[in-house]
Amino acid sequence: MLQFLNISNIALIDDMQVEFESGLNLLTGETGSGKSIIVDALGVLIGGRFTNELLKSGAERGSIEGLFSVTPNPELELLLENAGLDATTELIIRREISSTGRNKIFINNQLATQSLLRDLRPYLVDIHGQGDQQTLFNPETHLEILDAFAGNGELRGAVAEAYQR
Questions:
Q1: Which residues contact 139 (CB under 8 A, 6 or more apart)?
Q2: In which region does residue 23 sit, left (phi positive, over 0), alpha (psi from -120 to 50) or beta (all else)?
Q3: Which terminus of the chain has fewer Cβ atoms in its 10 Å neighbourhood, N or C?
């Protein structure tokens, strides 16, 4: 779950911090109020492609940073370990973007790749737009959604561990 988002020099945004509560968070507002910019920035943060149009006009650099809380998950832990990262319940992801097109990705202050970000995406956040229900239509996520709803995170981990043994 996304807990905190920090955006600097992205599109029309000079500097913005947004705190999110647990559960469902909705962005609403007038046309042109910046909802799409926040969603686009979040998409870039979790592995989407960066285009120079997203960088604030006249800025040399921009950054997008997010604090995510993650539930214990054996696949996620393996993914993090294979990338040389410690398995944890919080991930800080930061993308630093420059006008030259070069950008850097950091996960818990360690350099990372865009492909790792894309692999982490399903464990971090699910963005839904109007008529866009990606996770709900993906049968591979149904069990995970039910377990999360039932609060079976620890039980699921114990079963996975027993299966591995």
A1: none
A2: left
A3: C
Torsion sign across C-alpha atoms 71, 72, 74, 77: positive
Q: Which pLDDT belongs to residue 135?
A: 63
Residue 81, CA distances (Å) to 76, 93, 117 in order: 9, 16, 14
Q: How far apart are alpha carbons 153 and 53 in whole angstroms?
A: 40
CA distance 35 to 40: 9
The DSSP code for 139 is G
The Cα–Cα gap between 124 and 46 comes to: 8
- Tell me the Ramachandran region of residue 124: left when phi exceeds 0, alpha when psi lies from -120 to 50, beta otherwise: alpha
Task: Please give the Cα distance from 99 to 97 (Å, whole number).
Answer: 7
pLDDT tens per residue across span 37-87: 888 898 889 888 877 778 888 899 999 999 999 888 888 888 898 888 887
